[in-house]
Structures are given as structure tokens and as C-alpha cells.
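idk why but the lab printer keeps eating my pages so im just putting this in chat instead. protein + D-mannonic acid:
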Amino acid sequence: MAVTVGASRLGLGSLRRLPAASRPLVRPGTVPAGVLHLGIGAFHRAHQAVYTEAAVGAAGGDWGIVGVAPRNAALVADLAAQDNLFSVTTLAADGAATRVVGALAEVRHAASDPAAVVGLLADPAIRVVTLTVTEKAYQLDPATGVLRPDAALAADLAGDRPPATVPGLLVRGLLARAAADAGPVALVSCDNLPANGRRLRGLVEQALAYAGAPEHAVGWVGGQVSFPGTMVDRIVPASTAETLDVARHALGVTDLAAVAAEPYAQWVIEDDFPGGRPAWERAGAVLCADAGPWERLKLRTLNGVHSATAYLGALAGCETVAEALALPYLADVLRRLVAEDVATSFTPPDGIRVVDYGEQVLDRFGNPAIRHRTLQVAMDGSQKLPQRVLHTIADLRAAGRPARWAALVVAAWLRFAQGTADDGSPLPLQDPLADRIRAALAAAPPTPAGAVDAAFALREIFPAELAEDAEVRADVVGWLTDLTRHGVPATLAGAR
Ligand code: CS2
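predcted complex ->
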């Protein structure tokens, strides 16, 4: 007899019917809010929400999360209809496990209700604000760290409308918090940027100045707000219909906010929380004084190799990262990128060998259960290349060393940005600078050297020092010539 499962929806009412191993670690709805999170995408739900739930489960505390979606109204509606519950499916190569997470106390939609978010930022109960808002939200010149607001942020900071951007919300919220003297708070960037804490501080301080904030408010922020840096890590692809199917199968109810992730997770956090924090160390996070070495390790190795795999894989017609890794010779080339370029470009955290870390990264990328699309990782390349690849090149060149493998990644990005895969099919350039990049390439002479010179002239991406380095230029032109003439497989085969 056919039984229909999954007709009902995940929510408080269906918790009792879940398999015991799939139930939340805390009683949902009973933990008062203490954390405000901006950007409740898949990554937050499978990372900070999981850590925070485990911390509260182990050590208690009023650290429920108020989750804010800047734009995605459907996600807010889906979560609200599920009493703020969602599931995380952990996908190991040899099986999956699904658990409902009870970390969210509330959800909000910033675009339709900015006043609620501003109110929360000024609420004394909120003592930690975490952010996953992607690289492009920070709007700082990568070379100088100077705020370069786009039109939307400039309008927010001019103050003649309700804030529509994340920095705009932060500024308005902090001004309200200062006016209410609502107690100290930590603003915690969980985005994949180097020195993300310092960057967020730079953004907030400059945005306050730009907005003409009164001196006492600026002083209050200076004394009451901390900006701990963090390194976050877990591979969490965008959810698909298949993700929801797997969750429904495991739970017996429908979860429209389900996410799936790899088993591995890491969180390194600078311990600077003037208003207190969840006991994240009880959930396996590392609390330390300086997350910098961990950030460099992760951004240059994991993310650098990820981007390399994504661009080369997409050009070769591979849909997923795991599929791309199986391209002949790609893993060999990535190993040389790690051993010869990445590992020699910086000093890793004590006790870590970059080459071993790189092997672990390749293992994680090869997980066949994770269907991470190359095009997802390829997105926003202009915002990712600096910390993932260009800093490696800059440090190697400053030490007088070559950066040949890192130059291959730049060439692969450039060929991707030119818009056609090896088989001639179109590749989408999803990037905040897409128009600038396309225009520069369209105006360039139709040769690899012409394309490299045009790209290197984009100061928002390539600092002058790197762009004027003849050896780097020659390496990138060489690789781009190979990729253009022979395609990815032959380039990799010839590269060994
Ligand atoms: C990826 C990251 O999409 C990307 O650019 O490189 O999201 C990556 O999966 C995470 O940083 C892993 O922690």
C-alpha cells in the first residue's frame, strides 16, 4: 500500500514525530534572543546557527538568534511558517544524517521592515551581531581600505530614506543604540575576507563619518563596539530540489528551508566580546587572540584552490567541483599550486603544514555527495580573486619568487570572464563588476596579451604593483594563450 509521507510541514507541532536523532539540541522557542544575524543564507544555517545551537545546548545562555534576510522574502516566509525551524543534512561520502536546528528565535525581512532591524540593533538584549553578507557588501577599496559607497549605500548614508543596504542598516542601528546607550555589542564578520573584523570596523567607522554621525555617537561606538575577526569554514552549496527531497525523506515532513553541507566545519574566532557571547568553544570553535594566520591559510588554500577548480572546471564543461577534480591532471596542478605557491607565500598557524591542509581540502572537494556547482563558486570573481590568489602572488613577488601556478588561476578567471567554455557554450559572468569587466575586454585587442592588459588595468581588482610586474604578466599571458588555443585538458596535461 502506498503511504504518502511529507505532506505536513516542519514546525513545533511536528517535532515529536521526528526520528529522535533528528530533533534539535535545544527546545525551540525557549531560548531568548541574544544574537542578531544578518544574511540567513545556506552558509549561516549550516555553520554559525549549528555552532550556536550546540553552544547553548551545552552551556545554556540567552543566545537565540534573530535571523535577518536582507532581501529574500520567500525564505523569511518559509522559516516563519516552520516556527523558525530548518534542517541541516550532513552529506558524507558514505551516508547522510539530517537534524533540525532550533537556534533561530525569530526571522525578519530587512527590505520590507528595516525599522525592525534598526530596533534590534539598538536592543540591549542583542549583544552579538554576526554577518554573512558576501564579499561585495563591504564596499571598501581593496588596496586602500577606503569606503567607496555605491549609489544604494550613498543614498542610505545620506539618510533620506529607510536603509536598504547592510552597512546602512548597521549605521542607523548603531546610532540608535548609541542614543539609547543600550550596552556593548560585538559585530562579527563571518565573510571570507582577510582581516574581516578590521574591515568591518573600517566600513562602520567610515560609514558613520560619511553619514555625518554626531561626535558623541562616534565616541560611543568607539568605546562600546568590538569587531572580532573570524575564519569560517564549511562547504554548503546552494539548496536545490534534491536537498529538500533528502530532508523530507529523512524527516517525514517538508522543510522548505533545508540545507545540506559537508561533515567538516571549522570556526576560529578572536575572543573580543564586551557584551558576552555563546560558549562556542563548547561546540568546537577555536577562540583566540588573532585569527589572521587561520584566515590566510583558509582563503589562500581552500578558497584559492576552490576558485581554481571552479574556473578550470567550468571552462571544461564540468557542472560540479567534484566532477572537475576528476579532470585528468587537475589535482596534480592544484597540488603544485599549493606546494610551490600558496605554502611559500605566508606563515601558517603553529602546527599546521599547508601541504597537509591542502590534501585535506582536495579530499573535501572530492566528496561526491556534495553537488557544489562550479558556477556558484565562480560567481563574484572580482571580489574573491584578491584574497584568494592576488595576495599569494604579491607576497611571492615581494620575496623575489615566481608565482606561476597562481598566475594560472588568474588566467582561468580571465578566460571564464571572456564568456565561453572550451566547447563554445556561453558562461555567465555574475559579478558586481561584470559591466566594467566586459567593457574592458570588448575594447581590448583580440589577443591573450590584449585581454590581460585590459584586465590588469582594472584597478578595482589588480593593484598597480601586480599589474606592472612583467613576469606575472608574461605568466598570465602564457597560460591564457594555452587555455585559448588548446583548452583546459591539454593545458593541464602540458603543465606538469
Ligand atoms: C566558495 C566558498 O563559493 C565560494 O566561493 O569558495 O563559499 C567555500 O565553499 C566556503 O568558503 C567554505 O568554507
